[in-house]
Each structure stands twice: as C-alpha cells, then as structure tokens.
Write a structure and sequence with these properties.
The protein has about 190 residues and is of the alpha+beta class. Among the domains are: about 70-110, no CATH class; about 120-185. The chain has helices at about 1-30, 120-155, 160-185, and strands spanning about 45-50, 55-60, 70-75, 75-80, 90-95, 95-100, 105-110. Strands 3-6-7 form a three-stranded antiparallel beta sheet, with no helix packed on it. The chain has a two-stranded antiparallel sheet with strand order 1-2. Helix 2 (about 120-155) runs antiparallel to helix 3. The radius of gyration is 38 Å and the shape is flat.
Length: about 190
C-alpha cells in the first residue's frame, strides 16, 4: 500500500509541475513583445524612424540630416515672327537652373563655395596665422627640449636614447599647442 501511495504522489507531482510549466509557456507566448526604450539624441537636424512588428523591430537614425533647400528654374522660350520671311523676329529665353543650399545657407555647386560665401577674410587670416604659430611653436619647443630635457635623460642606462627622442617629440607637441594659443591671442582670433 505504501508503494502505491508514493507512486501516485510521484506521478501526481510530475503532472502538476508539467501543468504549471505549460501554463507558464502559454502565458509568456501570448504576451506582445515590446520595443526597447532608446533615448535618441535630438537636435535640429536629426531624424529617426522606428518600425515595429511581430517579427521584431528596425531603427533608422540619422544624426545630421538637414532638409536641403532646392531652387529650380526652367527654360521658357517664346519666338515671334513678324513679316513675310521672318525678317522681324524676336526671341525671349528663360533658362533652367537648379540650386541646392546647404544647412548654413551657402549654395552647393559641387565643390568649393562661391566667392563671397563661406569663410570670411578674417577666418582665413586666423587659419593662416594659426598654422604659422603652430609651426614656430613646434620648432621652439623642440629646441628647448633638446637643450634642456635631452641632456637630463640621455644618461639613463639602456633606454636613454629612447627617452631623449620622447622628450624631443613631447617638446614639439607642447610647443605647437602653446604657439597656437599665443598666436590666437596676438592675432585676435
């Protein structure tokens, strides 16, 4: 009798656990999958499109997607003939032109900007001055590092020659940065 009780209790326990597992599977299978919450960075020129369905979801995001302004003009041709052989003829033409404008308002002509659009003379002057100041600063920084820093580290056993090169490179890099800062102050950029 005890064997029968334990067998019935074991079979009943297995059937009960199986029913709970089947119910859990049915409940989770009927649940609608949710799209994840993604916080897109938003700006004036960003756009995104999300498509979600039973099979999954897809996201299309563009960080800098400005609307492009198009300007179009077309050709309109009017000919008029007066006289017997068209000796007094006139022709009026209006030609086609299409322009695209970028987000900063300059006309896109497929390469460089049109004269008068884009960078000002002051911007160009500042770029040229910055390049010269960086070059001069790099030369001065390398010279100072070679005169002061290299003799201090050249005596290090085994790696002194390598450390001397690092000091020269670091001096040139620091000198370039300092030269750019000083040049921008003196040139009012």
């Amino acid at each position: 009798m005890t064997f029968f009780k334990w067998t019935a209790l074991g079979v009943g326990g297995v059937v009960a656990i199986a029913h709970i597992g089947v119910l859990g599977h049915i409940i989770t299978a009927t649940r609608v999958p949710e799209a994840p919450v993604i916080n897109f960075p938003r700006g004036d020129y960003s756009s995104y499109k999300v498509e979600a369905g039973k099979e999954g979801y897809s996201i299309e995001y563009r960080a800098n997607d400005p609307a492009v302004l198009n300007s179009e003009r077309s050709l309109d041709l009017n000919k008029s003939k007066k006289g017997f052989f068209g000796s007094n003829s006139s022709e009026n033409r209006i030609e086609y032109r299409r322009d695209e404008y970028t987000m900063d308002g300059t006309r896109n002509i497929g390469g460089a900007a049109i004269e008068g659009e884009g960078k000002s003379a002051k911007d160009i002057e500042c770029i040229v001055a910055d390049a010269g100041a960086r070059s001069q600063g790099a030369m001065a920084g390398t010279s100072i590092a070679a005169g002061v820093g290299v003799p201090a580290v050249i005596g290090i056993p085994y790696v002194g020659w390598l450390a001397a090169g690092w000091v020269s490179l670091l001096g040139g890099r620091v000198g370039s940065t300092v030269g750019s800062t000083v040049g921008s102050v003196f040139n009012d950029c």
